[in-house]
Amino acid sequence: MSSLEADQRFMREALKEARKAYEAGEVPVGAVLVIDGQIIARAHNQVELLNDSTAHAEMLALTAAFHAIGSKYLPQATLYVTLEPCLMCTGALYWSQIGRVVYATTDEKNGFRIHQQRTHPFHPKTTVQGGLLAEESIRLLKNFFAERRL
């Protein structure tokens, strides 16, 4: 399997998590955390369920991953997330020293890029890629917010 095929496979898993959030009335964002081709954590937004503004998919996936591997650092891991991380999640990803972040679509209102000046907001060794399966993520988000406006 090529690296693109693997990336698409794991992003599809993140999209499954986003659909769970959608079905639960949460903003449809999902994340999976992968090490050595294995998913070690998965999560979706649970802000409403937990009444916790920090219960973003990325934060929940990071916490689960730390517990799963018994470490606070994830330099060998890749996070696949359906929406560009916000500043809070970017900060947590920075401190985790995550190796790679792959997101589906940009967040024009709250994504890290809006606040990024001339510095890379992640750990210096973290690589970032955006745009993978963006259409599917955009469709979920647009449908979710369109239903809320009715």
Written description of the protein model:
Helix 1 packs parallel to helix 6. The radius of gyration is 14 Å and the shape is globular. 45% of the residues lie in helices and 20% in strands. It has 150 residues and is of the alpha/beta class. It has one domain (3-149): 3-Layer(aba) Sandwich (Cytidine Deaminase, domain 2), CATH 3.40.140.10. It is built from 6 helices and 5 strands; from the N terminus they run H-E-E-H-H-E-H-E-H-E-H. A 5-stranded mixed beta sheet has the order 2-1-3-4-5. Helix 4 links the parallel strand 3 (77-83) and strand 4 (100-105). The model has no long low-confidence stretch (mean pLDDT 94).
What is this entry, summarized?
By secondary structure, the protein is α/β, with parallel strands linked by helices. The chain has helices at residues 3-23, 47-50, 57-69, 87-96, 112-115, 134-148, and strands spanning 30-35, 38-44, 77-83, 100-105, 127-130. α1 runs parallel beside α6.
